[in-house]
Amino acid sequence: MSNHIVETYDEDLRELHLLIAHMGKDVSTALETTCNDLVKGDKGSADDVIEHDKDINAQELNINLKAQKLLALRAPMASDLRVVLTSIQVAGNLERVGDLTKNIAKINRKMGMSLPANIANLVKKMSGLATEILRVSISAYSNKEENQTQKIFDDDVTLDKQYKELSKAILREIKRDEDHLEDLAHLLFVTRHLERIGDHAKNIAEATIYMCSGEMNRFDSLEDNQDV
Amino acid sequence: MPSTKTEQMVMASLKARHRKEQSFKLLGIAAIIMALFFLVTLMTSILSKGLPGFFQYYVTLEVELERERLDPAGDLSDQSLFDGQAKKIIQEAVLAKTGAKKRNEKKAARKLVSNGSDLRLISFVQANPELLNSRQSVKFALDDDADSYFRGFVKKQTPEKQRRLSDLQIAYLDQMQADGLVSYEISDYLFFGSASRNAEMAGIKGAAIGSLLTLVVCFVIAFPIGVATAVYLEEFAPKNKITELIEININNLAAVPSVVFGILGLAIFINIFGMPRSIPLVGGMVLALMTLPTIIISSRAAIKAVPPSIRDGALGVGASKVQATMHHVVPLAIPGMLTGTIIGMAQALGETAPLLMIGMVAFIVDIPGGVTDPGTVLPVQIFMWADFAERMFIQKTSSAIIILLLFLIVMNGGAIWLRKKLERRW
Amino acid sequence: MLELGEVIVNCADVSVFYGDTRAINNISIDIEKQSITAFIGPSGCGKSTFLRTINRMNDTIDSCRIEGRVKVDGEDIYAPSVDVVPLRAKVGMVFQKPNPFPKSIYENVAYGPKIHGLSNNKNHLDEIVEKALTRAGLWAEVKDRLHDSGTGLSGGQQQRLCIARTIAVEPQIILMDEPCSALDPIATSKIEALMSELSAEYTIIIVTHSMQQAARVSKRTAFFHLGDLIEYDSTDTIFTNPKEQKTEDYITGRFG
User: Is the dihedral of CA B126, B131, B133, B136 positive or negative?
Assistant: First the structure.
């Protein structure tokens, strides 16, 4: 795609792009750190992550403002319009991911027990996949690559399967070990959060498709198809 | 303070630029002053020679209006009055006033009053028949030599043999003046008299009417043809080599010396068609030929000046080409066309050469009644008068020039007024 | 999606030449009845030339030649038997610079009906004039000064007067060649509102330099470039997700 005749228009769009890339990176990093620490039982990063969420919220607002300005002043059309609209959607999804990560960090901080081995493995696997899906969706959006999105939808289906598996494992553990009921209940929340993060990554992928080709679609998740 | 480099460069060149502008301005002012000087000199010369020509010297005589002598047939008809003794009665009045007795004295005295005074008396009687058979004071024009004396052109100092007036005549004139009988008034002859060999009787009436008739003929022929040609060429004619050729030819015709049109008129109208010479009809036709290119060119310019948006608007609403042209373009172009025509007419008014070629130079005394009566035009009249030696003719020539210039100014002024009045904004 | 309703103008393989230069290359397009269609494109792309083929205004240019077929309401308008004069009553035109005749407002509107013989008495003519001025949204402003000069109105009013003049001869189609480019934004908005109302009865084709205007008023948009028809689709599609790269580049301001 060639440049706009008015160069400052290109600069504005580039700035928006950088803001999203930066926010995406912050959110990805926070998620990865928090999940790793949870599995290891390390509470060191928790406070920082919780504090840093404020900054992530501010980034979302900033992106919204930038997009508003572009809409009002540039009257973007066609592909430019889709870029601006999706930037708002993506920023919203990233902000939710940030909140969910904050919640996981809070749970990490409160966690009294150390995770049983099997659960720890499953959490590691699931959080690793969720982090990966998020990272790929952000990359696909930033690079405007539609072809990466199919993997995201497939991985999200896998993530949903892992969510079911992990939930079952935690419920079994609760039956076996009633003393750590609270912690295990919190872990259930963590699995829920990770599953939600996968959904948000999927939303980002759908936004990427819309931005590239103008097609609006929602991809059904495994849940909807299986009446679970 | 000049801050940037560019500003400094501009400031540096400023002085030279101002100097250039100053010298250009001065040049312009000098040119204007010179032009004004020439104009003032010309006007002064014309006015100083011509204004006196508007006046003449008259003498008031007491005449016996004896009915039987003046009007033998008793019916106040022209024939009867011509047969009467108007001339003799006037001469008797002159002799009485001057006291001339001897034969040579009488002869001298009679020459002092204008030859045409009898006509003046006859008109007076016809206008006031109730005054017959009484003694009346009537004004008569002095003969041109006497008139020249009073203006100071015939001087007492010159030896008698070289003068046009004898010492005796001068004595009589001085006597009349001393008696308060001589007056200096606006010359009615100038305006109402026609061509005459007698300078004091000469007037422009015939020539003016001849000019008017000629111009009317010229307008009636040239305006419709010129306007229609311009409309056709500009709006309807296809743009090809032939129309280009026509356009070039019309433009060139505007620059052709006017005498050539005279020769054309002579060859075609007079020789081939056998029309009579010296009539306003032929003169008008020749002038029409001459004026046509001017009218066509200015009309075309007026039509071109109508913006295409007007035509588009008319065509867009479904007008045909003819309707769009006649309902919209031509009405908007009329002011320009009229202005161009009037200027062309003003030019034609002052033309002499072509009319000389077709013979409008004859000495015409009768005022033309219509376009087929022989006549002459004002510039030709001026041209003829310029030939005559009498002093009064010189003055009357200048006076006629002033009158001609006034007509031209009025016509051009009319063109300007018309243009201002009809100017439309679109 | 394009999905045309009843078609009133059908152009097939139309090419327009100025002398030897080809200005329009083989364009085929159908215009839907009683809707607004916009022609957009950079300067010199031929959109005005193409517009003028629909009412044969290009006939006034000597060197202009046309190939292909243009049908208006089922009739081939370039057939030898066709008289241009009634065609132009059927297909009216409003121009870029408002060009009311230098006559009274009344005379401006009455001229068309008079020459086409639409009215034989003064009362009827008065009615026609009033109706046209009302439809053009101008009646209230000028009803007390119908005999004032048309050129004394403001720019926006003059353009509405030109629209009234066009409507007075009861056209089916109104062609508008950049009708608002000489007007201020408020006058432009009034004309755009007027166009919306008029499109219920008339078919309107508008050539415009302003993409925002095309986006606001038209139901379908055709994008022209260097004499070619690049894309023709619903306005919605053209401005959110055009199919051709050239179209996308033009409307996003990536080339002029």
Answer: negative
Q: How far is C36 from chain B (nearest CA, A)?
A: 20
Comparing CB atoms, the residue among A3, A9, A79 nearest residue C248 is A79
Residue ranges per domain, chain C? 7-97+172-251
Q: pLDDT of C195-222, one tens digit each?
A: 999 999 999 999 999 999 999 999 999 9
Q: Which domain holds residue A116?
A: 2-224
Taking domain C7-97+172-251, whether its CATH number is 1.20.210.10 is answered by no
Q: Does A86 or B363 have the greater pLDDT score?
A: A86
Q: In chain C, which residue's Cα lies nearest the Cα of A213?
A: C241
- Is A226 at the interface with chain C, CB within 8 A? no
| Amino acid A228: pLDDT | 45
- Which of C215, C251, C255 shows the shortest C-beta gap to A2? C255
Amino acid identity, position B126: Q
Sign of CA dihedral B285, B286, B287, B293: positive
Q: What is the pTM of this model?
A: 0.79
Please write the tens of the pLDDT for every residue from B95-122. Answer: 888 777 888 888 888 888 888 888 888 8
CB < 8 Å from C in window 41-80 of A: 75-80
Q: How many domains are there within chain A?
A: 1
Residues in C closer than 8 angstroms to A82, CB to CB, are 240-241
CB B295 within 8 A of CB B227: yes
- pLDDT tens-digit series, residues B25-47: 999 999 999 999 999 999 898 88
Question: In angstroms, how far is CA C99 from the centroid of its own chain?
Answer: 14
Q: Report the pLDDT value the prediction gives residue B424, as an integer from 0 to 100.
A: 62
Mean pLDDT of chain B: 86
Residue B314: pLDDT over 80: yes
DSSP state of A113: S
Using a CB-CB cut-off of 8 Å, the residues of chain A touching C211 are: 77
C15 confidence band (pLDDT: 50, 70, 90) = very high
Q: Which fold has domain B205-422?
A: MetI-like fold (1.10.3720)
Whether B313 sits inside 8 A of C99 (CB atoms) is yes
Closest of B262, B423, B229, B268 to residue B352, by C-alpha: B262
- Give the three-class secondary structure for C230: strand
Domain boundaries, chain B: 54-186, 205-422
What is the 3 state secondary structure string of chain B? CCCCHHHHHHHHHHHHHHHHHHHHHHHHHHHHHHHHHHHHHHHHHHHHHHHHHHEEEEEEEEEECCHHHHCCCCCCCHHHHHHCCHHHHHHHHHHHHHCCCCHHHHHHHHCCECCCHHHHHHHHHHHCHHHCCCEEEEEEEECHHHHHHHHCCCCCCCCHHHCCCCHHHHHHHHHHHHCCCEEEEECHHHHHCCCCCCHHHCCCHHHHHHHHHHHHHHHHHHHHHHHHHHHHHHHHCCCCHHHHHHHHHHHHHCCCCHHHHHHHHHHHHHHHCCCCCCCHHHHHHHHHHHHHHHHHHHHHHHHHCCCHHHHHHHHHCCCCHHHHHHHHHHHHHHHHHHHHHHHHHHHHHCCCHHHHHCCCCCCCCCCCCCCCCCCCCHHHHHHHHCCCCCHHHHHHHHHHHHHHHHHHHHHHHHHHHHHHHHCCCC
Q: How many angstroms separate the Cα of B411 from the Cα of each of B103, B371, B407, C237? A: 54, 22, 6, 69
Decide if C165 and B318 are in contact by the 8 Å CB cutoff.
no
Q: Which residues of C touch B318 (CB under 8 A)?
A: 85-89, 112, 115-116, 169
The predicted pLDDT at position B351 comes to: 86
Residue of higher predicted confidence among A180 and A194: A194
Contact flag for A and C (3+ C-beta pairs < 8 Å): yes
Task: Please report, for residues C21, C49, C50, the alpha-carbon distance to residue C18 in angstroms, rounded to integers and kept in the order given.
Answer: 5, 10, 12
